[in-house]
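Phospho-2-dehydro-3-deoxyheptonate aldolase, pasting as requested.
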Amino acid sequence: MYADGDELARALAQLHELPPLITSWEVLALKHLLAEAADGKRFLLQGGDCAESFDDCTSPLISNRLKVMLQMSLVLVHGLKLPVVRVGRFAGQYAKPRSADMEERDGVSLPSYRGDLVNGAAFTAEARRADPQRLIRGHARSAMTMNFVRALVDGGFADLHHPEYWDLGWVEHSPLQDEYSAMVESIGNSLRFMETLAGESIGSFQRVDFYTSHEALVLHYEQALTRQVPRQWGWFNLSTHFPWIGMRTAALDGAHVEYFRGLRNPIAVKVGPSVTPDQLLRLVDVLDPDNDPGRLTLIHRMGAAKVETALPPLLAAMKAAGRKPLWVCDPMHGNTETLGTGVKTRRFENIRNELDRAFDAHAVAGTRLGGVHLELTGENVTECMGGARDLTESDLARAYKSQVDPRLNYEQSLELAMLIVRKRGGAALG
Ligand code: PEP
Ligand code: CO
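Structure tokens follow.
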């Protein structure tokens, strides 16, 4: 991928000396929370952009994404009566797997855009060159994102006493607003009631934890940030709390599996509809030989049309083998379609149906769906169709911003959180 080996080696040597973005304590704390989620004591909300871009490392984009996730987690905590583990697809989600190495436009062929960590999106030879300096910039942008998220969270942004901090101005007339406001009011009342009883303000409601995750795709980058730490054995990826292996790089004999095997982080793997029970069991044996609680999360992403046939055999095989991973549903990546106009989209209905069917498949198998993995943004985009405002094909042109996969906008994200609560309450989604 990189044309100049010396240039790459110099960038990696520099990266190797830079401080990590997170600590091993946080990594182990998250692992414990994920073990509890696998055990049915928590629910995982993992979400963010398909890919971050260096230009989008701005205050409003970061804080709006946080606002959406906070509102969704409020809905989930309130409705599921379970604590929620919040994990962002951010502070490092800068690399994308591609199905083709080259992209052709009007007879010109150039290397595919692989995410800002590797090259630029513009269709020029210069932009598409894999540039090692981008690894350093990716680390810096991730650190800036992480720093801002931590400052917001520590500064009281996530305080349950002030849910108005998370309001997004433009959603005033949302069809979901009344339901959400009623919930916020009821939570506020309970909080004041408990604090009156306790005679003091309850500190644990003033902050929440946010963890980070990304697809650990560019192993040069990941390895340079994989470190040993004092008083701990083994190796930690200190670029993110919770790295995952994408569907395209999950081969048992591939480099990514070999790298992940040696990490102490909790790790996740995307599981698509073509994976057989036997392949999955062998992969799990390699990645989690000790059946270690919290170590392994399996994120299934089958598509609404395939989930009912593809998922049950995997659940049955894992259960029969005594395996207890954290099962998470990504209802996005199996439901991407390209319209006649060439626009990539996803239908809310398919996203909802996949989740609905996944919950049912787990209920039948006697396993537990412990979380969701979503592509979402706090911006008012029109990238996915449907939802409460019933966005149609003609709406997509209005505010389609993603360079990669279509994301749920704020309203669609909140609606999905409400539907999950209804589903867990026993009803069908929608
Ligand atoms: C992604 O999460 O953006 C992605 C590419 O997913 P998958 O590996 O499941 O296709
Ligand atoms: Co994506």
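Note for the archive: The chain has a mean pLDDT of 93.
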